[in-house]
Amino acid sequence: MNTTIPNFMTRGLAMSIVKPESIAVFCLTPGGVRLARRLQTHLPLTCFTSDKLMEAGFLPFNGSFGDTLREAFKQYSALVVVGAIGLTVRVIAPLVNDKMTDPAVVVIDERGQHVISLLSGHVGGANTLTRYLAGILGADPVITTATDVNEMAALDTLATQLDAEMQDFRHAVKVVNQMLVSQQKVGLWWDTPLAAERERCDTRGFVPVDSLDALPQLDALVCVTLRDTLPSLPLPVYKLVPRRVVAGIGCRRATSLQTLVELLQQQMAENHFDLMALRAIGSVTIKKDEPALHQLAQCWRVPFELFSVGELSRHEQRFPASDFVRQTVGVGSVSQPVAWLMSDGKLVGNTLRQQGVTITLGVSH
pLDDT tens-digit profile of 258-269? Predict the structure, then answer.
């Protein structure tokens, strides 16, 4: 089996990020401790066990196993219990809330014969983690989600792989995945700028669609695109929007949040981007305490990235400079070099300049 460290992708706007270093392992027996030791040679794990089983590199339970697992449920992106599945279910049952936000939970028997994906298989990454851990241990991966059992992709898995969003995501996942396992024909179309990304995604079960002008016989269509609008089509269409657009922003001090929201929406619309395509906003470090920029990032639930004057100065010659901006922040241009750095030089459209605000967009891949 392949034991390359899995790529736990972002889950979308309302979703967290599973990283290898955010995996907590719980050991209840000496055999469990030995098994965790094997896993530690492949992944940076946080391992917990009881006081009587403590070894170097492990942390003690905070009270009891149940108390520690319940606390970790809120803090870690993935939990691995080396022990009984029934005990694990009883402990986490009151905490289970939403498959879009619950952490991945995986259970392994202490002899390392079976690795079981228990919770958040797709969006949370439990199925991927299960396969990876099973590969390390030479164990049987136990995965029960319908699309995986039928050797098909799933819409929520595809969204996770693409770091993509969709309107009414929960409903769309339910409908599309049910169609896939019911052997209905669900098409998958990639907009030209995103076509290269299909090679790294699991698309089993979807019907490839090359053109929206010549559709095969389908029951529904998933469109992977950054566009704000698509042509009217004679079947149910689900638009999957990867977060790829970045916005470099410069603004006067005390600019209002309303102004920034309206101008960013305007700039996205002028470039025909869906608002869900925004991945991050950025500015110069002198703006690190600008309230409206932080509020804007919170409204869109995206990161707010900051760049030093030195970083921006290295690309300043590419863009028109303003003496006023240079005197104010130390560099002659803000939004354009910020967007340049955030998108690796892939700027889109013209820079917006209104009401003391500049916004430049780029597309990262």
Answer: 999 999 999 999
28-60 pLDDT, tens per residue? 999 999 999 999 999 889 999 999 999 999 999
Residues 6+ apart with CB under 8 A from 65: 26, 28, 48, 50, 91
- Residues of the chain short of pLDDT 70, as ranges, are 1-21, 147-150
Whose CA is closest to 282, among 304, 302, 258, 309?
Answer: 304
Residue 303 in tokens: 């990161």
Sort residue 168 into left (φ over 0), alpha (ψ -120 to 50) or beta: left
d(Cα 25, Cα 47) in Å, to the nearest integer? 5
Give the Cα separation of 95 and 219 in Å (integer).
37
Those residues whose C-beta lies under 8 Å from the C-beta of residue 298, and which sit 6 or more positions away, are none
Question: Quick check: 125 and 132 in contact, CB under 8 A?
Answer: no
User: What pLDDT shows up at residue 6?
Assistant: 41
**Residue 265 contacts residue 275 (beta carbons within 8 Å):** yes
**Whole-number pLDDT of residue 14:** 30
In whole angstroms, what separates CA 24 from the centre of its chain?
Answer: 20
Angstrom distance (rounded) from CA 11 to CA 5: 18
Would the pTM of this model clear 0.85, i.e. be above it? no
